[in-house]
């Protein structure tokens, strides 16, 4: 059994709470929320969960910290956790597209002798892509397609009218770095693929709003000396957030379970 502190209590956080409610391997007993989320978290979670707004206010040292909050949460909570020796697992991978962020995380992990794990989130076959990177990788092209409602609150709103979209429309075409910076809640997958493969500047990304979809479709192709691969997933969204695929929460859950099981994927 491990004691876990979770940063963020939104669609993914509440899903994880339900997943691990009766699981002896993982005790999600501390949550870090933003000041505005305090009341909602207190109302939803019982006395068994400590809810704070700052890492230093956690009543006990967690075995591991997980992040399912936002790009900002990495600087606010993950960097200090790593620096104080707490292993961390993150989902907001797009934050690594910001200048100096990867270096900041690595320095903190080195200073605290801790480890930072990036999980695959809503995408798959990252292990194959990372292996291909060692075997000669020339091109990675990723397309992320979601229903129009999943792009609300993003710069896509100024590209098209999401309410009256009649056909699939490209909202963004460019590098994974620009995608991750411009679409922090929709392009973490693009950043994850880039970091596993060809890097943030060489990985090609297209983001699409498609009114014919009822789920999120992530698709990529990769080729090089290693050979050729393609991967597509049609991910059901979490009920509380149409932007987020349910598999994202499962990927974080798998990473936690793997820490305590004697073997596994
Ligand atoms: N790697 C991947 O495949 C994916 C990564 N994500 C990442 O996970 C994040 C969370 O996703 P959802 O749960 O669907 O979002 P959500 O919006 O439903 O919940 C996020 C919660 O975190 C809180 N929060 C934000 N910044 C915070 C901070 N600095 N400190 C404490 N709490 C903070 C928000 O107030 C909110 O309650 C996304 O913003 C995105 O960065 C999401 C989907 C896929
Ligand atoms: O959950 C998803 O479908 C992917 C996502 O939002 C992201 O890449 O940030």
From TrEMBL:
Pathway: Cofactor biosynthesis; NAD(+) biosynthesis; iminoaspartate from L-aspartate (dehydrogenase route): step 1/1. Keywords: NAD, NADP, Oxidoreductase, Pyridine nucleotide biosynthesis. Transmembrane segments: none annotated. Residues 166-252 form the Aspartate dehydrogenase domain. SUPFAM superfamilies: Glyceraldehyde-3-phosphate dehydrogenase-like, C-terminal domain (SSF55347), NAD(P)-binding Rossmann-fold domains (SSF51735). Pfam families: Asp_DH_C, NAD_binding_3. This is L-aspartate dehydrogenase. The gene is nadX.
């Amino acid at each position: 059994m491990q004691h876990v502190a979770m940063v963020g209590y939104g669609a993914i956080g509440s899903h994880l709470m339900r997943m691990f409610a009766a699981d002896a391997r993982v005790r999600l007993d501390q949550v870090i929320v933003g000041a505005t989320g305090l009341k909602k978290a207190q109302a939803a979670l019982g006395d068994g969960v400590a809810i704070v707004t700052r890492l230093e206010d956690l009543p006990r040292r967690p075995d591991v910290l997980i992040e399912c909050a936002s790009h900002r949460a990495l600087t606010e909570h993950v960097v200090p956790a790593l620096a104080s020796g707490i292993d961390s697992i993150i989902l907001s991978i797009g934050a690594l597209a910001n200048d100096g962020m990867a270096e900041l995380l690595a320095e903190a992990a080195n200073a605290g002798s801790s480890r930072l794990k990036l999980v695959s989130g809503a995408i798959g076959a990252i292990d194959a892509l990372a292996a291909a990177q060692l075997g000669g990788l020339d091109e990675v092209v990723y397309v992320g397609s979601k229903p129009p409602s999943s792009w609300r609150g993003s710069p896509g709103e100024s590209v098209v009218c999401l309410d009256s979209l009649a056909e699939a429309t490209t909202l963004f075409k460019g590098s994974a770095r620009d995608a991750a910076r411009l679409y922090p809640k929709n392009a973490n997958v693009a950043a994850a693929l880039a970091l596993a493969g060809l890097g943030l500047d060489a990985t090609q990304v297209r983001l699409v709003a498609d009114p014919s979809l009822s789920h999120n479709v992530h698709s990529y192709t990769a080729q090089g000396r290693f050979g050729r691969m393609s991967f597509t997933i049609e991910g059901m969204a979490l009920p509380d957030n149409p932007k987020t695929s349910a598999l994202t929460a499962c990927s974080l859950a798998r990473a936690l379970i793997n820490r305590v099981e004697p073997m596994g994927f």
